[in-house]
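Justification of resources, computational component.

The compute hours requested in this renewal are based largely on the per-chain cost of generating structure records like the one below. Each record pairs the submitted sequence with a full structure-token output. That output is archived, and it is also reused by downstream analysis tasks.
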Amino acid sequence: MTTNRTVRLIARPVGEPKRNDFAFADEPLPVLGEGQLLIKNLYLSLDPAMRGWMNEGKSYIEPVGLGEVMRAGGIGQVVESKNAKFAPGDYVSGMANVQTYCVTDGKGWVKVDPNLAPLTTFLNVLGMPGMTAYFGLLESGQPKAGETVVVSGATGAVGSTVGQVAKIKGCRVVGIAGGAEKCRIAVEELGFDACIDYKNEDVRIGLKRECPNGIDVYFDNVGGEILDTVLTRINLRARIVICGAISQYNNTTAIKGPSNYLSLLVNRARMEGIVVFDYAPRYKEGALSMGAWLKEGKMKSKEHVEEGIDRFPEVLMKLFKGENFGKLVLKVG
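The structure output for this chain reads:
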């Protein structure tokens, strides 16, 4: 009998998530009810937001309950279907969770076509990170041709797409990333105008050099000291898009907020949070635009694929150690 390998959250992590915060088990597959389908998971999306989902407390989405299978988006193939909208063999994307099989009523799941793009692309530029970048930058950041856009986490899933969209819109794009190789990728492979290596350079000095005319849009994926430093360089009417704060997610002390926030007042600037689910009715719009850019060669989708569901905790930590190059994906295999 086929079993379902599951990874369940059994303890709220304190600081960095550890292996013993999760339970691994082989469980029987349920019998499908009317309207349900069975999906074999192929790839899972690993995202910084997963760390927040492990915490108890009010947020933009309910936390993962203790004992529940860890939440994760994914790509899979339909094995069995009692749902008229899906047929065996269909490739689909949705909330697969960290397990080898998924049983669902199909709500929130969409078909994807591997002939249009590699399956992992649907977890990156054509998936939630891409939608976050597209709508976060264009709706909240509102970049204009000729403006300077700075993006932190520049070679991560969201940051790499933000930078490419900003270039397509005619902006000067400066990335912030950790390490010479990531900065090389940002400039040589993704087309950024410059990239500041925060691990080997004072970010303040780098921003002064690369943004001599100030910063018009800042897309923040890291929070902490880098956000604070950027605020000292913003222009009049600048827009700061708060997408994430990966530098703060594993804190065991209070989250560090921006002490330079009065720069927002002086410069009449705006700081706004972005949660991708707010744009769900418009995902098709974003996918069509970025799909066209991919086809035209104006954009690249870079994925970092690791394998093995039992390695989930260790692979997830690559995000927080800065060890991933591009969108981090776990091949269930």
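The longest strand covers residues 37-45. The chain has nine helices and 15 strands.
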